[in-house]
Amino acid sequence: MSVEKRTQSIDLSHHLSELSKARLTSPLKGLMKYFEQPGILSLAGGLPSPAYFPVSDISANVLVPESFALTPTESSTSLSWLWKLFGSHNATKERTQAVTIPKYPAVKGDISLADSLQYGPAVAQAQLQEFLKHFISEVYRPAFEDWTVLIDTGNTDGWSRAVMTLCNPGEGVLCEEWTYPSAMASMIPFNIQPVPVAMDGLGMKSDDLENLLSRWDPVSRQMPRPHVMYIVPVGQNPSGSTMSVARKKQIYDICVKYDVIIVEDDPYYFLQLGTYTFKDDRSPSATPSGKPSADESERYVSTLTPSFLNFDYQGRVIRLDTFSKTIAPGSRLGWFTCNPVFAERLERQGETSAQSPCGFGQSVITKILTHWTYDGYIRWLRGLRTEYQQRRDFFIDCLAEEFHLHAVPAVAGVWEGCIMYQASSKVKKSTGMTEKYSARNRTMFSFVPPVAGMFVWMRLHLDQHPSFAPGDRDTLETKLWTKLGENGVLFGPGWMFAANAMAENPDDNDSGHFRISFSNVEFADLKKAVTIFGRVIREFFQEDL
Ligand SMILES: Cc1ncc(COP(=O)(O)O)c(C=O)c1O
C-alpha cells in the first residue's frame, strides 16, 4: 500500500489485555471536559489553589540550538587526537538564552506554572501536545490519519504500560534475540515471556519471523502465537544495528498477515551516525550554515530512516519516543504515538499510577521546545548527532590504534551482511610477550562499527582462548569482565542482553560479548579505557586458566 494514501486505523481492540479491558474510566477524569470549560465554577475536584504553589516563576539559561557544530569541529589530522584529549568541549564557551515560565503569564496561551503544576490532562499540556503533533507529522508522517499522542515518563514507562495494556499472563512477546534487558524485566515477572527472533546486520530477520509465526505450535510452545512485538529498530540495544526501509516493510507486512502489534522503542532515532570511516580516510565535509531553517530541517529529516509509523496504514504500531537521549534522562518525559483506542487504554493505565509526568519537567521542556521552535529543535538534534558521531569515531580510532583490525564480510550471525573488524594483537617489538602472542595471530574479538546509537557490540572469540572447552562461554566472559573491572574498566557483560536461553544460536555458541558505551566518557578516558582493555585482553588470551 502506498504510504501517501492515508487511512483510518482499523479496529484492533481484540488485542487489549483482560486487565486493560477491566479498567474503568477514573470517575474524576471523566469529568475533565467540564473542568476545561471556560468560566466554569469548579468546586468538584480536590485541586489545591495555585496561590499556594511556592514557586512564582522558573527561569533557565538554555543553550542555543546551534550550540554544536554540524561537522566535526576540526579535520582528522593526527593533531585532532591531541585536541580531543586535551581540549574537548570545555574549551568552547556555552551560548545561552534566558527563558522564564511565570505562574501567571501576561500573554494568554503562554505556558503558565499555575496550570503546569496543577493536576492536568494526562495526554500532555496543551503547548506540548501541539508541538509534538507538529513534530510527528513532519518527522514520522504516520500512514494512518487518526494517530494520537499521549505523554509518559519515558520509554521504560511506555513499554511497561504497553505490556499491561496488550498482554495477558502466559503469552509471549516477539523480540530481537539480543535485546534491552529492562524491557524483558518489565514483562517476565508477569509470566509474559520473550520469544526471540534471529538477527542479522539489519536487526530482526524477516524470514525467521515468518517461519516462527507460520509454524507456531501452541501445544509444544505452551503459549498462543504471540500478538505483540517489541523492537528497537535504530541503534539497536545492544547490537547497534539499524533496520533498512525494505526490512521494515517486510516485518510490517508479516505483522499484518499474522495480526501482530508492533511496539517500536526508538530512543536512538536521532543518533543516526552514518558509516564509520578510518581516521586516515576521512575527508572534511563542507561546513553547512548551521542556522535553524525550514529547508535545512526538511532536508535533514529526509535523510533519516523512516519509522514503522510511516508504513502503518492500519494503526498497529505503538511508537515510543523519549527525551532521555535528546534533552536529558532526568526529565522523565516521553510519548506514545498510536491509534486512539490504544491511546485511551494506555491513558487509563497511567492515570492510576503517575497520573501524568511531573509538571516542573513538562513545563521546562515545553518552554525549551517552544522557545527553540521546531526548526531549532531539529538543529539541536543535528548537532547532537555530530557530537555522538565524533565519540563513536574516536572510540573506534582508539581500537584501531591498539589492535590490528582485519576487515572481513560477515556471512552469518548478527552481523550478516556487514563488514566486520576482527581484532588481533599488534606486533610490538618492545614487549616479548606481545610478540610471542601476536605470532599466533589469534582473533581476540570482532565488532561492526555501529551506524546509530551509543554502543559497540563486541563479540569475544573465546574459542581462541588456550583453556577453552565447549560450554565455557559464560565462565570465560565473566572472567574477562571481572579482570577488566579489577583494572578499572567496566563494560556491559553480554549475557545480560540475551532475550533468553533460546538466544544461543550455534553461530554464537563459542563467543561471549561485551556492550561498550562510548556516549558518556570523556575522550581522554575513552583512550585510557582502550589502552587498559588492550593490556588485559592480551594477557587474558595468553593465560591457561
Ligand atoms: C532500547 C531502550 N529503551 C528504553 C530506554 C530507556 O528510555 P527512558 O529513559 O525513556 O525510559 C533505553 C535506555 O537506555 C534503551 O536503550
Automatic annotation (TrEMBL):
<keyword id="KW-0663">Pyridoxal phosphate</keyword>
<keyword id="KW-0808">Transferase</keyword>
<feature type="domain" description="Aminotransferase class I/classII large">
    <location>
        <begin position="117"/>
        <end position="402"/>
    </location>
</feature>
<dbReference type="InterPro" id="IPR004839">
    <property type="entry name" value="Aminotransferase_I/II_large"/>
</dbReference>
<dbReference type="GO" id="GO:0030170">
    <property type="term" value="F:pyridoxal phosphate binding"/>
</dbReference>
<dbReference type="GO" id="GO:1901605">
    <property type="term" value="P:alpha-amino acid metabolic process"/>
</dbReference>
<keyword id="KW-0032">Aminotransferase</keyword>
<dbReference type="InterPro" id="IPR015421">
    <property type="entry name" value="PyrdxlP-dep_Trfase_major"/>
</dbReference>
<dbReference type="InterPro" id="IPR050859">
    <property type="entry name" value="Class-I_PLP-dep_aminotransf"/>
</dbReference>
<dbReference type="Pfam" id="PF00155">
    <property type="entry name" value="Aminotran_1_2"/>
</dbReference>
<dbReference type="GO" id="GO:0008483">
    <property type="term" value="F:transaminase activity"/>
</dbReference>
<protein>
    <submittedName>
        <fullName>Pyridoxal phosphate-dependent transferase</fullName>
    </submittedName>
</protein>
<dbReference type="InterPro" id="IPR015424">
    <property type="entry name" value="PyrdxlP-dep_Trfase"/>
</dbReference>
<comment type="similarity">
    <text>Belongs to the class-I pyridoxal-phosphate-dependent aminotransferase family.</text>
</comment>
